[in-house]
Amino acid sequence: MKDNRIETKTVIAALGGFVLGIVVVMFVMKMAAPGMMIHEAKSPYDFNTTVETIIANAESEGWTVPKVYDFRKSLSDAGAGDIGRIKVIEMCQPEYASGLLGADDTKFVAVMMPCAVAVYEKSDGGTYVASMNVGMMGKVFGGAVDETMSKVARDDRVILGFAE
């Protein structure tokens, strides 16, 4: 009878430790995930120079820049007020995109295309650059998506390397 109580206590303690471990891991992931999924860096340049540098770097790496969104203008035109200077630069590497979009089993990544980089000013007067951690996103999906996103991540480091 005494052995059963000891075993029960051991099982309860083990389950409690397991549940506590899960809670701690979830808390750490919640705290770390935003920094892991989105990279933000302060630019050494002013706002316009930062935007121009990203576009020039992208084009020199074989990327196209189909659109630059001016969020400040768009939201102001919609009557939403002044949010400060924010532009989002859409970039596409046609070879990478066609490789993923040409296969049925990877067409779903179209939702993440084209790649986008945000440039914005904060209240400290600095210009910042934010981008998705596409290398990590690729690891989540694996296979061809991972292979392609690894290439995109490599190119991102070149295109955005000035803002490290």
How would you briefly describe this protein structure?
The protein is of the alpha+beta class and 164 residues long. The chain has helices at residues 2-37, 47-60, 71-77, 94-101, 134-141, 143-159, and strands at 38-42, 64-70, 86-92, 115-121, 127-132.
Give structural notes.
- By secondary structure, the chain is α+β, with helices and mostly antiparallel strands.
- The protein has one domain: TT1751-like domain (TATA-Binding Protein), CATH 3.30.310.70.
- The chain contains six helices and five strands; from the N terminus they run H-E-H-E-H-E-H-E-E-H-H.
- Strands 1-5-4-3-2 form a five-stranded antiparallel sheet.
- Helix 2 packs across helix 6 and helix 5 packs antiparallel against helix 6.
- The longest helix has 36 residues.
